[in-house]
Amino acid sequence: MIVELGHLALILAALVAVVQMIVPMVGANRGWSDWMRVAVPAASMQFALTLISFLALTYAFIVSDFSVLLTAENSHSAKPLIYKITGVWGNHEGSMMLWMLILTLFGAMVAWWGGNLPPSLRARVLAVQSSIAVAFFSFILLTSNPFLRLEFPPLNGNDLNPLLQDPGLAFHPPFLYLGYVGLSMAYSFAIAALIEGRVDAAWARWVRPWTLVAWVFLTLGIALGSVWAYYELGWGGWWFWDPVENVSFMPWLISCALLHSAIVVEKRDTLKSWTILLAILAFSFSLIGAFVVRSGVLTSVHAFANDPDRGIYLLWILALFIGGSLTLYAWRAPILRSNSVFASTSRESGLVMNNLLLVVSTLVVFFGTMWPLVAELLLGRKVSVGAPFFDLAFTPFMVALAVILPPFAILPWKRGSLSQAMQPLWGVLALSISLGALVWALQTERSILAPIGIILAAWLVGGAFMELLHRARIGKVPASETLRRLRNFPRADWGKALAHAGLGVTIFGIACITAWEQEDIRVAQVGDVFEVAGHTLRLDDVEQGQGPNFQFQRAHVSILRNGEAIAVVTPEKRIYPVQQMPTTEAGIDRSALRDVYVALGDPQVGGGWAIRTYVKPFANWIWGGALLMSIGGVVSLTDRRYRVGAPKRRAASSPAGAVPAE
Amino acid sequence: MVRQVWLAALIAFLPVTAGAVQPDEVLDDPALEERARAISAELRCVVCQSESIDESNASIARDLRLLVRERLVAGDSDAEAVNFIVARYGEYVLMRPPFTMSNAALWLSGPIFLLLGGGIAFAFIRSRSKTVEVRAAPLSPEEQQRIQRLDAD
After folding, report:
1. Global pTM?
2. What's the CA dihedral at B120, B121, B123, B129 to 10 degrees?
3. What confidence tens digit (pLDDT) does each residue in A577-621 have?
4. Which residues of B fall within a CB distance of 8 Å from A584?
5. Got the DSSP string for A427-468?
6. ipTM beyond 0.90?
7. Which of A221, A274, A319, A578 is the most exposed place for a label (fewest CB within 10 A)?
8. For an interface test with B, which of A381, A602, A609, A614 has the most B Cβ atoms less than 10 Å from its Cβ?
């Protein structure tokens, strides 16, 4: 009964979405304010109905109602409660429901807090947002209905893929979807602005926080996925350039570019049509991601059960929303010309270069990801494009970005001089290079990677904070005055410094782990003591046991210092009988300077166990940097100009009930 | 109980591996082993999804790893060992597509986009900064005279 109610709520939500797509848009074009106002309650109702539907599905999973096809295929009564709940989105249909829940939530938030938007803009934004919802509601109802019943329910379910039975599933997909779907807001605002024919500083001030929210979630979502892969896959890889990782990375790169170009629109009223294009592209890459994951055109570890019908339906959605928006863009963008001027050495130019590097690197990832498909269709060749290609083709862009970032971030708007911008940075540069040289001299292997990474990292972190100190006139005014200035900086400035420093920290972690990771593979008997990269380890014992829905073999490995155990790690091998699938859980002793990472292998014929040990220097800095970037985003979101609310457009430029743009 | 024992046995004998390279595969010569690892990271496990044979625990990946090591022990150079595998499994096993005519579009995509985008960005910045210079240009004699006339009024 509850399941049927959920099904009904989903259908009603789709109908509300159809109304919300049409009525406010007509109202905005005709200047009928009552038609425009329909969007607000409709958006709230759409969200409420989707929430009911989602909760009904969750209920079916929690009570293990195996008369529902989806539950029978993806759940099991013996599964711990948390995995029954997270299992809702551990499959194609349920994850689409999560996608819809977030999509309608964002729409509702514009309805609730968009009171200071011009009525016609709000109506159009909500109508566009709802058109996305209509496309995906119909996709769910026609090709991926989660509420289908079984005539003869099985006694128990098929269980969730054991790799997904991990706390990571509780956070990684929701954060990622908040990011992907959050970018739909920027898209809706861009389309609405194209229809209205107006983009100004106020528009940018509304779009930027939404993009920032999406970007923060996307950053965290990607980082969480990386952490999860690191401890789950048994050898500590944290990024694989797998197609599905790539399709999450592309919207991230584009939304980075969008965040930066929106600042130019906001502060300098230029780069308008480019910013609109980025907003369209950012969400388009989200849609491409959804298509790639769900159609299975590029198979990967993430691909949900694929089905050609779904793929073709998604391809239509893709063609409609990407093709349609780009056509609208080509038609309307020329009216968005701006004529503000800036010198070639200015912060504007720096942000243009930032955009250039980010967009070109996105295209490289896109080309690499799609190349196997293109080569097979056009050339009839089966080729692979893997990590070695991306490492080589992508990294130079990030290096270039890191090199130019600090001076251009200091440059003033309109016109500046590079020598002036570099003045506070010479010290940082000298320090970074000497650090790099020191590392080069100290390290035993002659790898150039780590010194370069360390130079870039110190350059970014030092540059970010030197910028603040320089602007607080450190050394030129009394310390109390510097402190006062630092306190009074807009929070956006602190956010900028934190995010840029975060990039440096991530680069540092990546360079160190790539250059200095050490590995040891051996057969160890219980009681054996062995050395790995300066660490002494002892295999204490291996026990067998029974988890809630799996069997495990668990080793106890002590990390010794002067004969005393300073840490014990417990790597595990598990087998989930329902799916007959083995998984590994690494034992990791984490610390700021290094992770000792132990994985348990097979028992050996002559006794003993295969043990793999890695010492991974500065591993946690990779994700620490991502966390710092997100914190920077959040700090920036609390900036006064967003808290106080976007300013009203000047009355003169915004006639009530705006006239149709045509 | 019987079921439990059976499962325990299953755990023990399934090729449940953490990571890929097994202790019995490792070559005695560390230099040779290091070369084998580097080669393995560039070869795709053909039944897996974007995993190299160095990362995969599929049995075919193990076979390929052993094959690579066999070739190296037999005295092959890195390139010869890779070619040996490519000759049997096709270009598909290479994680990094070779720079050939058919893959040129892939390899050149980055530089071409950079040049193209850089050209557009350069032209854009110049057009904007030219306007600055025009605005900053000194007044012509006629304009000076006009200002003086206006001041006089």
Report:
1. 0.89
2. 160
3. 888 888 888 999 999 999 999 999 888 888 889 999 999 999 999
4. 16, 18
5. HHHHHHHHHHHHHHHH-SS--SHHHHHHHHHHHHHHHHHHHH
6. no
7. A319
8. A602
